[in-house]
């Protein structure tokens, strides 16, 4: 079997905001096509960790490599921003643009593809997430679940090497959660490298290649979903799981 490379490599990073240490000596490797699910209590540093990966925050110490290149401050930042898509809890679509225009903008501006190609790619992706009939709608005319599916399609339109998800279903009404998780599952099955922060333990179990439990800025436990959910080692993990399962 050919060796799979580490697309993301986090080496001993710490992150401080003033006196507050939010991440403490975190290391994590994500291979191509892996889906790493990060779980942990609110305030434990999950968003900060994701934001460090795509350069929205800079670690106080340690190093992050993406595709073999170090991401640090301005260094390689454009490459990372182009190759790593991010889907947030709030949908962040451009409100004044149509759904299709939302999908066309970055590929035309950053990847320099033509408007015809961007339109074709955009429509294919809208079909994929089941929203081709909403191409000319404005985001506000869509439900939260539909907006989040558009956000995923928009991230995919850049043909990124990896996608980061920060609690993509936390702001949704319960009945819309599954439609977004289904799209994420499909994207994972097509081989996208993903890092997903979520409280959806069913998704973690079913789709995750690995699960990482973070508490107070520290990696407490890490393993396959089977390891972490069925053979939990650490008391802190057990306690957290008893609250969310
Ligand atoms: P999580 O996503 O796990 O809920 P976060 O990464 O958002 O956790 O936050 C971890 C801690 O860092 C929290 O105490 C939060 O208040 C703090 N924090 C996050 N961003 C900043 C910032 N820009 N400035 C100061 N403190 C921050
Ligand atoms: Mg968060």
UniProtKB/TrEMBL annotation:
GO terms for cellular component: plasma membrane. PROSITE patterns: ABC_TRANSPORTER_1, ABC_TRANSPORTER_2. The keyword Phosphoprotein does not apply. SUPFAM superfamilies: P-loop containing nucleoside triphosphate hydrolases (SSF52540). It is a peripheral membrane protein. It comes from the Bacteria. It is found in: Cell membrane. InterPro entries: AAA+_ATPase, ABC_ATPase_HisP-typ, ABC_transporter-like_ATP-bd, ABC_transporter-like_CS, MetN_ABC_transporter-like, P-loop_NTPase. Keywords: Amino-acid transport, ATP-binding, Cell membrane, Membrane, Nucleotide-binding, Transport. Gene3D superfamilies: P-loop containing nucleotide triphosphate hydrolases (3.40.50.300). It holds the Pfam family ABC_tran. GO terms for molecular function: ABC-type amino acid transporter activity; ATP binding; ATP hydrolysis activity. Residues 8-241 form the ABC transporter domain. Belongs to the ABC transporter superfamily. This is Peptide ABC transporter ATP-binding protein. It comes from Dialister hominis. The lineage of its organism: Bacteria, Bacillati, Bacillota, Negativicutes, Veillonellales.
């Amino acid at each position: 079997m050919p060796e799979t490379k580490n697309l993301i490599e986090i080496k001993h990073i710490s992150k401080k905001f003033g006196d507050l240490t939010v991440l403490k000596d975190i290391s994590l490797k994500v291979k191509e096509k892996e889906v790493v699910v990060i779980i942990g209590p609110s305030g434990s540093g999950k968003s900060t960790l994701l934001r460090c990966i795509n350069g929205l925050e800079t670690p106080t110490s340690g190093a992050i490599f993406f595709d073999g290149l170090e991401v640090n401050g301005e260094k390689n930042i454009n490459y990372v921003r182009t190759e790593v898509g991010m889907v947030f809890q709030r949908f962040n679509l451009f409100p004044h643009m149509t759904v299709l225009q939302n999908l066309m903008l970055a590929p035309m501006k950053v990847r320099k593809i033509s408007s015809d190609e961007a339109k074709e790619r955009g429509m294919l992706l809208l079909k994929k997430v089941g929203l081709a009939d909403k191409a000319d709608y404005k985001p506000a005319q869509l439900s939260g679940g539909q907006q989040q599916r558009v956000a995923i399609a928009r991230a995919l339109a850049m043909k990124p090497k990896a996608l980061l998800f920060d609690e993509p279903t936390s702001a949704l009404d319960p009945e819309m959660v599954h439609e977004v998780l289904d799209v994420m599952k499909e994207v994972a099955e097509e081989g996208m490298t993903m890092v997903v922060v979520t409280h959806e333990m069913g998704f973690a179990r079913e789709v995750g290649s690995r699960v990482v439990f973070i508490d107070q800025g520290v990696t407490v436990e890490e393993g396959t979903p089977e390891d972490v959910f069925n053979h939990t080692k650490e008391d802190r993990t057990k306690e957290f799981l008893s609250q969310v399962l």
